[in-house]
Structure formats: C-alpha cells, structure tokens
Amino acid sequence: MTTPLDALAPRPLTEPHLFRLPLTHPNRELILYEHARAVERKMSGYIDPNSGLFATTALYLAQRGVCCNQGCRHCPYLL
Questions:
Q1: Among 10, 30, 36, 75, which residue has the least CB neighbours within 10 Å?
Q2: Contact indicator for 16, 58 with CB cutoff of 8 Å
Q3: Which of 1, 24, 10 is nearest to 77 (CA)?
C-alpha cells in the first residue's frame, strides 16, 4: 500500500516522527545534524552515525511521492 504525495505529515522535513527517533535517543542531535546537512545539500541521504549505514533523507522520500512502508527513520508521511 502506498501513501499519496498530499499525505505528508504536518511537520518540517528536518523533524522525524518521535516514534522513529525519540527525544531520548543518545545520538539524536548528531543524527539530526547529519540529516539537516544532507537536506540542505539536496542529497538523497547520509551515513548514519550509529550504524554506518546509508539513511535516506525526508526530502528524498518526499520527492519519491509515496511511502515505501519500510520504516524509514525520516519518513515524511508518518503522522
């Protein structure tokens, strides 16, 4: 099932849903910094400081136009 583009969550693309990145996450500020830097540069993602894996940005996910339902940290569709 996909989500239409007009169903973006009513929050800035730089702010992930608290379910995906809680306020208590030990590296929250570093993750938000890396994500914001990637969004500012219009990059599709960044290297996650926790896992070393590639994480997609909310900007990239929003431009795709649909939710992939894979549990992305920066999913712009999750309310």
A1: 10
A2: yes
A3: 10
Number of domains in the chain: 1
Residue 5 DSSP code: G
End-to-end CA distance of the chain: 16
Residue 77 within any structural domain of the chain: no
pLDDT tens digits along 17-49? 999 999 999 999 999 999 999 999 999 999 999
Would you say residue 31 lies in a domain? yes
Residue 76 lies in a domain: no
Residue length, the chain?
79
The maximal CA–CA distance of the chain, rounded, in angstroms, is 33
Is there a domain that residue 58 lies in?
yes
- Residue ranges making up the domain that contains 10: 5-64
